[in-house]
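User: Here's a structure from my thesis project, written as structure tokens. My advisor, Dr. K., wants to see whether a designed sequence matches the one we expressed. Can you design one independently, without my sequence as a hint?
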């Protein structure tokens, strides 16, 4: 351990990381570059903050933290995309199919 190691900003164990501008920027860019995107909100748990999963028409998907379920709904509403509660409706079959294809190709 170096002399100044204790002064470095390190995430503390057990502290959840919240949504950042980078998360929002990723979601915006991802949405803009794909067609037929739908949003699925995942609730906050003891391990992760609230997240949103975006799923494109071909099943490609991405997940990022969001500030809250309301923030996810506002993000989707602003872009005119449907939004669902993943805990109630689950995920679309095309998402699972995409993941299976990627795993088969060695990409996942």
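Assistant: Designed independently from the structure alone:
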């Amino acid at each position: 351990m170096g002399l100044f190691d204790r002064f470095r900003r390190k995430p503390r164990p057990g502290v959840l990381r919240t949504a950042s501008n980078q998360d929002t920027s990723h979601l915006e860019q991802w949405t803009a570059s794909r067609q037929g995107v739908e949003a699925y909100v995942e609730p906050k748990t003891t391990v992760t903050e609230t997240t949103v999963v975006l799923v494109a028409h071909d099943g490609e998907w991405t997940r990022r933290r969001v500030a809250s379920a309301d923030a996810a709904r506002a993000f989707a509403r602003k872009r005119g995309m449907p939004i669902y509660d993943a805990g109630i409706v689950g995920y679309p079959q095309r998402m699972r199919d995409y993941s299976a294809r990627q795993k088969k190709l060695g990409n996942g």
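When you compare it with your expressed construct, this may help: The first helix runs from residue 21 to 32.
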